[in-house]
Amino acid sequence: MATTIRPADWNTDRAAIRAVREAVFIREQKVDPAIEWDDQEESAQHFLVLEGDSPVGTGRITGSGKIGRMAVLQSARGSGIGLRLLESICAYARQAGLQSVYLHAQRHAEDFYRKAGFVAEGDEFIEADIPHIKMVRHFD
User: Which residues belong to any copy of the N-acetyltransferase domain (predicted)?
Assistant: First the structure.
C-alpha cells in the first residue's frame, strides 16, 4: 500500500487529523482533551500521512516556525514515516523562507529529533504532564 505525505487543511481534513491525534495523544499518552486542541489549529499548516486512504500520521507548523502535534499511529511506527513527515514539514518551512524551526520534543523522542538535525536548547520543562525539551534546527 502506498504511503503519501501531503499538506492538509484543518477545515477539510479535520476528521483525519483529529483521529490520529486522539489515538496517539489522548488515548495512548493520556493528554487531557481540553489542552490538545488550541487556537493555532486554523492558522497552522497541517500535514497528513496516508497509507492508501487511511490516515496514520499528522503534524503541523505554525507561522512562527514551531513544529508540533507530530503523531504517528502505533501500528505505523518504526517504518520511517515519522522522519519522512518531519522532513516534509522542514522542506515546507524552507520553501516558506524560514531560517530555522523549533519544537517541544517529548524527552523520550529527543534522539529521534536529534538524528533529524535538531539541537536541544534550554532546560527540561513539563507540558501536558510530560517532560519536554525545546529543540531547534537551523537551515543552511
Answer: 3-140
Q: Which helix (H) or strand (E) holds 17?
A: helix 10-21
State the residue for C-alpha cell 484543518: 10
For position 71, what pLDDT does the model report?
A: 96
Q: How many CB atoms lie within 10 A of CB 49?
A: 26
Task: Report the domain count for the chain.
Answer: 1
pLDDT digits (tens, 9 = 90+) for 34-70: 899 999 999 999 999 999 999 999 999 999 999 999 9
CA nearest 107: which of 93, 90, 128, 88? 128
* C-alpha to C-alpha distance for 113 and 130, rounded to whole angstroms: 17
Average pLDDT of the residues of the chain: 95
**Could you tell me the CATH number of the domain that includes residue 21?**
3.40.630.30
Burial-class residue 18 by CB neighbours within 10 Å (0-12, 13-18, 19+).
Answer: middle
Q: HSE (CB half, 13 Å, CA atoms) of 132?
A: 14
* 120 falls within a domain: no
Digit-coded pLDDT (tens) for 78-101: 889 999 999 999 999 999 999 999
